[in-house]
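GTPase IMAP family member 7: structure tokens wanted.
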Amino acid sequence: MKLERMQWEKQKQEERQKREEEKKKQEEVSDQRKKEEPEILKPHRKITESQRKDIEPDAPADSLSSRRIVLLGQTGVGKSAAGNTILGEKEFKSERGTISVTCECSKQHVVVSGRSVSVVDTPGLFHTEMNPEELMTEIGRSVYLSSPGPHTFLIVFHVNNRCTEHEQQIPQMIEMMFGQEVLKYSIILLNYGDWLEGETVEELIEENCGLRDLADQCGGRYHVFNNKDQNNREQVNDLLQKIDTMIEQNGGGHYSNEMFEDAERFRREEEERREREEEQIKQQVEKRIQEEIERVRKETEERIGAEREADRSELERLKAERQRDEEERKQREKQQQEERKQQNLNCVCS
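Answer:
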């Protein structure tokens, strides 16, 4: 399945590259046409572009310095608290504990050191009050709230969490929702760094098998927050710097809606394939059950038939035995009568 997914995503990546090349060629043709325009038309083009900016007020949000962040993580690890630390204000409802406060995606915006930063909080992975399909659909909505796509996914953990079965499932679950390329745009965020109590982050990651494997898949990227000190903007600026470095490593791009749609399409295809396999397995099981029922029925009928035949044979044997006994009895009685007659005759003669 993993090989099929890699081949499928490789094909989609080649298609995206082809579309990007075609788009680039179109832009080059457009630039060439602009150069060849008569001077009298150029002022009109400038006015048109200015009017377009007025019509599209959200355009600055996609500037080179802006950053769009999506928070992911289990229930109770402090995603909302991490979002509030980035924002510098308590915009997201946050409570400590194992009960998820966030049941739907929520977006907030802030300016950090002159940079536009938007943060999307999401429901906790393995949310206990939502079925898996509803949960994946709602978390997937974070991509559209970060349109044209998030620059990074912060996968949030509590520093006190240890390697659990759910933690080991997190990379697979995130890839299932967003596609295999998602970890190229992901950073591990360790919350409540003030709880480390002398232990280094490197030691924490090395001791936690789930964190260690995920860190490797995320290119070794991680960051630590002290959520108690929300006035410490240096830790937020450091995080933005790590995001900048990651974006540069990714060629300057961000996770796109198209990638998500590809992942959604693949997930649907996988779900349909899984349903078909389950249906086939169900039919095979039902067939085996019916065959077993038929086999037992035949064996039961044969056994009952054999028992009936044995009973019938036994009845016939008993009947024959009684008949034989009756004939022997009659024969003895007849012989006794003849003996008595002979004795009587002898007495008369004497």
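Residues 257-349 form the longest helix (93 residues). The CA atoms of residues 34 and 41 lie 9 Å apart.

Cheers.
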